[in-house]
């Protein structure tokens, strides 16, 4: 037991050590995986830098683009303007073009008529020739439409704005004439109560603003966007991503301006709040940049093969690491990106550990089994030996007792006779009979023990001869009856051969056979304290002779029915009832019946009685 406990303790300690070792190895392995992944990330980013420098024209040549993750947006900012690939709308532009008035003083007359004299028709007439010259046409149309509206010629004004909407030029304020025309059209329609038409026009205007149809300053965009609600379009705030993108481009443009003014070549990598990555590179004459989408790390960071279930997450500055389970963190400073990467593994990465643990558990289980198994074997061997030793000591005590009582009686009577103290002749005769009886009993006991010893050692010689079994039983019963009757018992024998059976001859050793029958009769009397009759039956059946000795005594319980045929074994009920015996009677019966090719059977029920049947093969003719 102690050994088994020690074994369990040792296994637990070994597994604990093994787990710690495995944890340490897994942490080292996770560190290696993190370092390899970061090295690979740095290489990819360096490759992007290289690609960016080679980027002279947009769209980039396919060989260059292959270096970058999918979803990347490229920018090229130079004197030629801002090129974006793939094309994305800019809600507002960092450097809106400015139009200088090409024809100063051309509108003085019209202004005079409109503003001072309020002669609208004459003012319109003064403007009409100016609508024909390309240089003055957009401005003339704008003024004309305004005056027509003032003069309540609304339909004319709407027509004029329609013409103006087709113009591509910019007004002196930098706002495109087309935008001014669109918003003025909406306003007139609203004033006229034509709300539906006004909303449709405003919706159109909203889409144009979102498509980046015009190069607007941020202020112009925000002004016109805020106007949309008044003009009948439910605009809401402009999309955040479009605003962010336009701001980012504006910011890049400013950096290029600074680089240009300083003649320097800055550049760098920056994580955006939405996790996208900006990589840029400026020279005095251009700025090239790329914006990788928010999932750029997923597509760029490659974990080495055999990384198991290792996962990672980006910790932007200010974010705390998870820290639970097996984790390592690595700064992204080397890759020139702010933040850290956290690598975590749910299960240990070391593959050999589970095999080792299985082996360890298997070995420990096997050892435990061996210990418990051998413990059980030793325990059962010891308890068997103890049982045998107990049986033997019971046997010695029983035999001693069997000897002591007749010897004491013999001694007493012999002394009385020797000292001539029994004067009465009839009592003296009685003493001689008693002496004879007790001597016979002792003789039988000694014979029994000697025979038992011979049988046990295999030295017993049998004189096997044909005998009529019924005759032998009859003679044995006759001998036994004398002794039984003295104790108040009667034996009822039924040994008549059934009709048609000519012989009951068996090949047996006469003395041994009679001893077996006598032992059965002895037991029947001994274990039948209440009923004073025992029955002996003879039968011939299937070439076998069956001799049964039946009593209505205490019976034998089911568990003991087989054991009582072993030497020294005595029934519990017999011992409890204080019935004396040595436990060798039935063992001898079994050995005798087997030596003669037969067997002994028992049927018994506690409190009802027992029947022992000696079965012997019928002798052949
Ligand atoms: P012994 O009678 O000396 O104890 P045996 O070998 O003759 O030894 O019998 C073994 C045991 O079998 C007895 O102790 C008794 O418990 C049981 N036994 C034998 N014969 C009978 C019987 N006729 N009725 C009840 N129990 C019996």
Describe the overall structure.
This protein has 621 residues and is of the alpha+beta class. The protein has 4 domains: 2-86 and 266-345, no CATH class; 108-237, Tetratricopeptide repeat domain (Serine Threonine Protein Phosphatase 5, Tetratricopeptide repeat); 366-432, no CATH class; 462-617, Histidine kinase-like ATPase, C-terminal domain (Heat Shock Protein 90, 2-Layer Sandwich). The chain has 17 helices and 15 strands. A hairpin with an 8-residue loop joins strand 7 and strand 8 (340-345). 52% of the residues lie in helices and 15% in strands. The strands form 4 sheets. A 5-stranded antiparallel β-sheet has the order 2-1-5-4-3, sandwiched between helices. Helix 3 (108-116) runs antiparallel to helix 4 and helix 7 (177-191) runs antiparallel to helix 8. The structure holds adenosine-5'-diphosphate (ADP). Adenosine-5'-diphosphate is lined by residues 523-524, 527, 551, 553-556, 564, 570-571, 574, 581-587, 610. Residues 523-524, 527, 551, 553-556, 564, 570-571, 574, 581-587, 610 line the site of adenosine-5'-diphosphate.
